[in-house]
Amino acid sequence: MAVHPAPVTEIRTDFSLLIDGTAASAPSTLDVINPATGQVFARCPAAGRDELDRAVDGARRAFPMWRDTSYDERAHRIRDFGQSLKQHSEDLARLLTMEQGKPLSQARDEITRAATQSDGLTRIPILPQVIEDNEQRRIELQWFPLGVAGIITPWNAPINLAAGPLTSALYTGNCVVLKPSPYTPLCTLKLGEIAREHFPPGVVNVLAGGDDLGRWMTEHPGIDKIGFTGSVEAGKQVMAAAAKTLKRVTLELGGNDAAIVLDDVDPKAIAPKLFFASFVNSGQVCMAIKRIYAHERVYDSLCSALAEEARKAKVGSGLEPDTQLGPIQNREQYERVLGILEDTKRTGARILAGGDVPQTDGYFIPPTIVADIDEHSRLVREEQFGPIVPVLKFTDEEDALRRANDTRYGLSGSVWSSNPERAAALASRLEVGTAWVNHHRATSATVPFGGAKESGIGRVYSEMGLKAYLEPRVVSVLKSS
Length: 481
Ligand code: NAD
What we know:
Layout: E1 17-19, E2 22-24, E3 28-34, E4 39-46, H1 49-67, H2 71-87, H3 89-100, H4 104-121, E5 129-133, E6 137-145, E7 148-152, H5 158-171, E8 175-179, H6 186-196, E9 204-206, H7 211-219, E10 225-229, H8 232-243, E11 248-252, E12 257-261, H9 267-279, E13 289-295, H10 296-312, H11 331-346, E14 350-353, E15 368-371, H12 378-381, E16 388-394, H13 397-405, E17 412-416, H14 420-427, E18 434-437, E19 456-457, H15 462-467, E20 470-478
Parallel strand pairs: 7-8, 7-10, 8-9, 10-11, 12-13, 12-17, 13-16, 15-16, 17-18
Antiparallel strand pairs: 1-2, 3-4, 5-6, 6-20, 11-19, 14-15
Helix pairs in contact: 2-4, 3-4, 4-5, 7-8, 9-10
The site of nicotinamide-adenine-dinucleotide (NAD) has 30 residues, from helix 7 and helix 8.
């Protein structure tokens, strides 16, 4: 596999924290590494407890004013913010590629998706519901904001995964303290810089920092809700910490999505779609396909077609225009995926494409397709979150369904067939938050997304996702005393 070198690029990296409407620094800093080179290319302030306290104080002070603005006014500001994101798209995309690694075209897509989904969320009405209205009494269900939301995001899609919860919290009248992953702080700090132009002081606060900062947020008595996106392990810690103050939580966690491919598909036709849904962002997507179960009748030809896709894919620095797959985002994850690759080789599974890791300073792993692998291997059981995907054979659909469901994860899954109704019947029995037929990995502002089992609690997007930032209140009026 030939890896393109990373082109030298000039980019602004001097970002600040955003605390109570003011650009702020901190005594500590974070190094930011370009995963295509393994080199530090920027530093940014890293918030400690003092900065967190100031951000929470600012948010609490701003809350009554923000709560009392109308939905229309808040929607208006959020849409303008989305427009600004689009105007800054080129700078933001380069920054995203530099710190995250994904190809520039996918970085641009992420920004467009963030702006579009934010806009869509602000068009969902939240209305009181009349439960009963007669001569004796009127009972109404109303919704009111929780207060201050702490939003904690991972490194695989820092802009899009910030935009959804940020918009949901703000539109419903909450103030926010937003914390990105320590691996990808810059784009989120830039979001803060843009947000400063659109929201009153204290409404949006952005703090870069390590895992400790996330823990302090989950314990902070001034924060009422945590919108967390990240690993299952950290998600459990978030929930345990939140229990001390009974903070509300939305947990968007990891997945081990299965795609079940039935015996009536055209393997060549679906291979590019399956490949993209497995390997986009080098497999570092919560809802990427992580296991492919193929019927024995199509198994060999699907394996060959997927291996062909893998061999064609261009791997390299995301700044090169023809790159399709960038590096793994950070060294820890790179080493984890290498460990899974070594384990896969030890099990005697067949590597159909990829598998040989180049010696470079960047964290590159070629797209790797694995056949005939033991169901109990790490690659099948764990969330690999990298560019290595197993293809497993089945004879009986019930058996495929049982194996697809035999996991503690339950984020999403898909069934592929030339008969959509037949596939939908099987898809309806997947133990997941989203089951797709003949596609995989699609979200929108109006469709709830989230995990079953250990893949999470609650949903993002849609009215359901918005109401996760609101408390229900019943107002019951007796008309005669
Ligand atoms: P991670 O759990 O290590 O970190 C996520 C964020 O949580 C970071 O900001 C981190 O600093 C913070 N954090 C870590 N420990 C914490 C704690 N105890 N309390 C509070 N905050 C803490 O995850 P990651 O490695 O950054 O991201 C990859 C994981 O995220 C994968 O499992 C992936 O599937 C998952 N993910 C899920 C979704 C989804 O929508 N379901 C989307 C993207 C990524």
